[in-house]
Amino acid sequence: MKTTWSFHTAGAIHFGIGATEQLSEIVKELKTKRALLVTDKAIVKAGLADHVQSKLSSGGIQVKAFDGGEPEPSIQALLNCYQFAAEWTPDLLVGLGGGSNMDLAKVVGVLLTYGGTPQDYFGEGKVPGPIIPLIAIPTTAGTGSEVTHAGVLTDTENNIKVAVASNYLRPNVAVVDPLMTVTCPPKATADSGIDALTHAIEAYMATDSSDLEVPAGEISIYQGRMPLGNCLVESAVPLIVQHLPNAVNDGKNIKAREGMHLGALIAGMGFSNVGVGAVHALEYPIGGAVHCSHGCGNGLLLPYVMKFNKPVRLEALARLAELMGVNVEGLTQEEKADAAINKVRTLRKEIGIPDKLREIGVQENQLHSFAEMALNIKRLMRSNPRSPTVDDLEEILKDAY
Ligand SMILES: NC(=O)c1ccc[n+]([C@@H]2O[C@H](COP(=O)([O-])OP(=O)(O)OC[C@H]3O[C@@H](n4cnc5c(N)ncnc54)[C@H](O)[C@@H]3O)[C@@H](O)[C@H]2O)c1
Ligand SMILES: [Zn+2]
């Protein structure tokens, strides 16, 4: 039985409206000279790249921007960024964007530091040591990548999402400024926002730390459910539930943007130490095959996996109903758990996340192979509190179809 757990996060977190104004001072402290800003064209168009570039320059460093980031970045996008980076030889990386750009910056950091091919680092614990300094500036409120251990890519040859997972990928500095999310379009706001809720809920349902079984010779970044993780999730869930609809429907609502940015950050701190489970594992092959966004796939699957986990996580789900602001007076534990699942369904509907896999282009004859591929993602599956068989996973998918 595992009797200890550990906790990692970004080296420093600067949070709040206008936090990016501090970038000039932050880079001075890092004592670097040449930065590569990893971003994409939508972020440039929104004026965010210029803003960050000017703050970096006034901190006394040279900056070049790579604007070839893309949603759910392919391995090819990574190689393009790596080539650009290798020519510029930066000593600092700045990931500016949603999870996609921040993840790209992380994996480019691995390649710049250690060489090799991206495939050398897929999986857990393959990064040999620290990478070059990285500042992460999220422009979506969702993935928590600004504090997490993961860099996620799309393997377009094998139609699956792949991840480089290592505590060395946690950024040195996270600059989390709600003003960076004001231009985020409603769909990206909804998808990334429900991803944050999925992080929180999967972590709250996760396998207990003491029950987490890691085969000899393997490491697990995920530590299982533990008190510090629970504290974080219990703070994140109310923030996300309260602010997500307003952030989607009224993007200029700074209070909503601020609440979501804080909720997503805290959820990221939690899940990246506790773990996420079957929702994320099932989303990897689905996202890889139909190219829905990570958040959309997760949001769609979340209530179905909550239902599957309910027999072994009644108490956690009942508590989640309270955290989500449901009036649970007079309800049994089971009714409270059902209320939590229904609350997720209502929230999802309010922000336009589909309810059925057929709506995002999945074919029924794909379900079995999705179930098989998901079951193979052991680093995620062992965090799921109820160990599914391939048939169980197929049943979940049929339910969601
Ligand atoms: N590293 C992790 O721990 C982690 C966790 C969860 C998800 N992910 C990964 O993150 C990716 C998804 O990231 P995401 O949900 O943040 O979305 P995203 O980064 O893919 O962005 C979605 C779209 O919104 C645009 N956009 C983002 N912010 C904007 C802004 N402020 N103004 C204008 N346009 C903006 C982007 O340009 C992009 O076109 C997936 O690849 C997913 O697998 C990583
Ligand atoms: Zn996620």
Defining traits:
about 400 residues; alpha/beta; Rossmann fold; Dehydroquinate synthase-like, alpha domain; six-stranded parallel sheet; three-stranded mixed sheet; 15 helices; 9 strands; about 50% helix; binds nicotinamide-adenine-dinucleotide; binds zinc ion
Report a brief summary of the structure.
The protein is an alpha/beta fold and 401 residues long. Helix 11 (314-323) packs across helix 12 (333-350).
Descriptive notes:
The strands form 2 sheets. This protein has a 6-stranded parallel β-sheet, sandwiched between helices. The protein has a 3-stranded mixed β-sheet with strand order 5-8-7. 50% of the residues lie in helices and 11% in strands. It is globular and about 60 Å long. The protein has 2 domains: 12-181, Rossmann fold (3-Layer(aba) Sandwich), CATH 3.40.50; 186-400, Up-down Bundle (Dehydroquinate synthase-like, alpha domain), CATH 1.20.1090.10. The chain has 401 residues and is of the alpha/beta class. The chain contains 15 helices and 9 strands. Helix 7 packs antiparallel against helix 8 (254-274), helix 9 crosses helix 13 (367-375) and helix 11 crosses helix 12. The protein binds nicotinamide-adenine-dinucleotide and zinc ion. Nicotinamide-adenine-dinucleotide binds at residues 40, 42-43, 46, 71-72, 97-101, 103, 139-140, 142-145, 148, 150-152, 161, 180-181, 183-185, 188, 191-192, 195, 294-295.
